[in-house]
């Protein structure tokens, strides 16, 4: 894509978030390896992908710089694909079921930093733990020494109003604080992965520490 547009868009997002202590993960699922490399050249070091095959292809295309990038996996991860990627990523934002945790425990060579995905809006099409079941899920992961629960993640519904967005993000924050208060050694749950291109400003107001930004970096305004 056009390098100038990419640089302008990136600068505009960084300007927007400059007063918040947050990590911006550039979601690169929409763009090719060349544009991902351009983001790297512009200083971005946190990159996120949501498909195993595309992620692996990118790792290969960027093998000269890949080790300097912190790789985030943000999409639904099928259990049979865990072994392909789990030792290549730094963060998994979408630990959305216990069977996935079990597979990670089996396949990971080292501890993986994971966000538990929570379905705060209750949308049937969305993955993630029901808010009422999150504590139970954290406790079930206790003996999985390959999993470190660093925080919670959510995706808001596409059609949520501003008020609803505030509500969903605040609910995730409340859950995160609750887990933190329990001092589980395996769940130093200090982080909140929430906010995408259209709602990161609201997510930041509600305490996001990781935002996942894709289209705002690539689209013409
Ligand atoms: C694609 C994706 C994003 C980024 O979406 P944009 O709206 O383009 O910013 C963030 N999180 C997840 C889980 C995604 O799949």
In short:
The chain has helices at residues 3-17, 33-41, 52-61, 82-85, 98-107, 134-140, 162-181, 200-205, 215-218, and strands at 23-27, 46-49, 70-73, 91-95, 112-117, 147-153, 191-193, 210-213. With 221 residues, it is α/β, with parallel strands linked by helices.
Percent of residues in β-strands: 15-25%
Number of helices: 9
Low-pLDDT stretches are none
Largest sheet: 8 strands, parallel
Could you describe the 3D structure shown?
With 221 residues, the chain is α/β, with parallel strands linked by helices. Helix content is 38%, strand content 17%. An eight-stranded parallel beta sheet has the order 7-6-5-4-3-2-1-8. β4 (91-95), α5 (98-107) and β5 (112-117) form a beta-alpha-beta unit. The longest helix has 20 residues, at 162-181. The two termini are 14 Å apart. The mean pLDDT is 97. Pyridoxal-5'-phosphate (PLP) binds next to β8 and α9. Pyridoxal-5'-phosphate (PLP) binds at residues 27, 29, 50, 74-75, 155, 196-198, 212-216.
